[in-house]
Amino acid sequence: MQPVFVSLNGTLQQAEKMSPQPDFDVAGGSHVGRKRVENQDHFLVADLHRQLEIIETDVPHDQCTELYGSPLGRLMVVADGMGGHADGELASNAAVQACARYVLDMTDWFLKLSAANEDDFKRELTDALTEVQKSLFENSSPNSTRMGTTVTMAYIVWPRLYVVHAGDSRCYLLRGGDMQQLTTDHTLAQKLLDDEAITAEQAATSKWRHVLWNCVGGSKERVETEVIKTYLEPGDTVLLCSDGLSGMLSDEQIGDVVRHASSSREASEQLIRQANEAGGLDNISVIVAQYSPRTNQSFTPAPVDNPSTADTVVD
């Protein structure tokens, strides 16, 4: 399968004119739900740092400066395993670890990312899930041929957000009163909806709504990677979740919880609790990342296009 690139708005040059990174508050959580015996979801939240280890000096310095500079970027991953018994848990665990290792090896990109090489950077991102796919096949047993997982990764290099995605976990962007699903559900029901074979109401209850045509691992040798790029502005919230959340709560309910929570931790805990109260039919994982609102009134954000009018380029 060929990678699919979706650019939601703006240019890299616009981003360079944006304000410095605002304060950042992030929290994640995962719960087995009320119906499952084990949790096959896994998640990760990490900062990517410059590192400086001082060997010897006569200049006073604090421990923080010695070890780490300001974060180069932030990484968030949600993976929802499938395959039955322990296979799903193993798949999502291996996927998250493989993502972390791959991004660690890509750290130099965050130092040299510019308009001139951004296309190369996005192609590197598509390779991330290819490497995860290889890792799953290398670590699977002959009896685990159906082992697979969804993977939704968000890379933030302020003010740019890159999302790498396969499956039906989701990434949302909340801005003001609007909540936008950035990723596409890789389900048969969504395909039928895209082909106008069924309505949105029918898709919501379709027997195909949980059947994936694309994931990492599973029975396919290749994964089709969706890469989304957009720009963030102060006050934005990025939310990643497994379908154990989005299947229990509507977008409106999710957005309402986030907007009224006093912190990312409170938002993530309330979302998990409400998903369980709504039935908790599946494992529930969520990451909420909030940027503080801007205080500089001269700040001019880059526009955000509607996903329905976004350009899609198939390489």
From TrEMBL:
Query: Where does the record place the region Disordered?
Result: 296-315
Instruction: Report any Pfam family annotated for this entry.
Output: PP2C_2
Q: Which InterPro entries match?
A: PP2C, PPM-type-like_dom_sf, PPM-type_phosphatase-like_dom
Q: Where is the PPM-type phosphatase domain?
A: 23-291
Q: Per the UniProt record, which EC number(s) apply here?
A: 3.1.3.16
Name one molecular function that GO assigns to this entry: protein serine/threonine phosphatase activity
The record's keywords, sorted A to Z, are: Hydrolase
Keyword Hydrolase part of the UniProt annotation = yes
Is Cytoplasm found in the keyword set? no
**Superkingdom of origin organism:** Bacteria
The name this protein carries in UniProt is: Serine/threonine phosphatase stp
**Gene, per the UniProt record:** stp_3
